[in-house]
Fold:
Amino acid sequence: MSNEKQVDSGRRGLLVATCAAGGVVGVSTAGALVSTFQPSERAKAAGAPVEVDISDVAPGEMKVVEWRGKPVWILRRTPEMMATLEKDAGELADPASDKVFQLPMPEYAKNAFRSRAEHKEVLVTVGICSHLGCSPSSRLASGPQPNLPDNWPGGFLCPCHGSTFDLSARVFKNKPAPTNMDVPPYMYLSDNKLVIGKDEKGEA
Structure:
């Protein structure tokens, strides 16, 4: 009898020790899995709104910043550049920006300038071609240039497959790119400071 009790208590001890060890492993494994599913600080930062000072962007110049790992162009257009935008309409595939690429078009940018009324000269767009995701080159000056028509009004040229976009990042007709480049949600914090990825409706 006493022998049997000793064996049972030995087994019980072994069972308790095994369960305890298993529990520790289980807890540590679960902890590793939980930490794997949590976004890193870099991932959080990549999706967060980005504040940009545009006081250093002169008329006719462009600044590039990063938001969600993509280039965002901020172009301060001159009056001469602005004058070309309404003339382009007949040559564009989607002049009113009705088609969606990756981001829904903000209501405040549904105009020929694709910008906010209070700063209509400033274009804010994600610099990614809607064809295969290349980043177009800026060809802001008007007139004849290599790989562009003689009556080029100024805009952007995708080096991958030749899609061309006007100074509002709208694609010209008969090009591989099916839609205009995206306008992200954005808002002004002051005349010279804006935030990309956030507007009155919240964050993107």
